Amino acid sequence: MHQNPKRNTQIVWESSSTMLPIHHHNFVIKTLNTPPVPLPVIPRDLIVSAFQRETDVAMRIAKPLFLSEGKDKNMAQQSIHIVLSLIAAGTNGPARDQLLFFLMSNSTDELNALAANVVPLIFADGSDNGGPSLYFPNGLWVDESLNIKPSFKVVVDVFYKAVANKVNFKNKAEEVRIEVNSWAKEKTGGLIK
User: Fold this and answer.
1) What is the DSSP letter of 70?
2) Which strand (E) or helix (H) includes residue 20?
3) Which tens digits make up the pLDDT trace of 23-79?
4) CATH code, residues 2-66+76-187
């Protein structure tokens, strides 16, 4: 276990598996032949602060939408934030820096931990208890000519609860479009077609 002196964030890892302490539970993720992925544990006060920054980002995005003409306006702030966070987790250099600046975040570790806390809570299906039935299909489709780093695949699976599929965009774009739309339709009970 390592402490980051700049923030009160613990980084936990093991060589053959990665431990994720989230909401007082320890989840062990087995990874084969991959380097350990540092996965942060963020204290509650930092999660609250991250939620506040997420809301600030959402308002910056929403302002032009709500100032535009038209009657029907809808925005899923968590969906946008999570997608941009996932993109940040898969980038590096200036692109990552720009995304972190826009998302008002110090690191992708912080964004990943926020996603790990947001996805199960906000997008939980409450229909069995008379609550709303929310769907949040989260997926990543990458051209088969590109490699997905195993460490990024762990982040996609564990933090974002997303699928990562390799497809042939170059020669089978229409089939990929149909596959993605069918997947979204299935995962949302037909709400997205």
Assistant:
1) -
2) strand 17-22
3) 223 333 333 333 444 555 667 777 778 778 888 888 888 888 778 776 666 666 777
4) 3.30.497.10
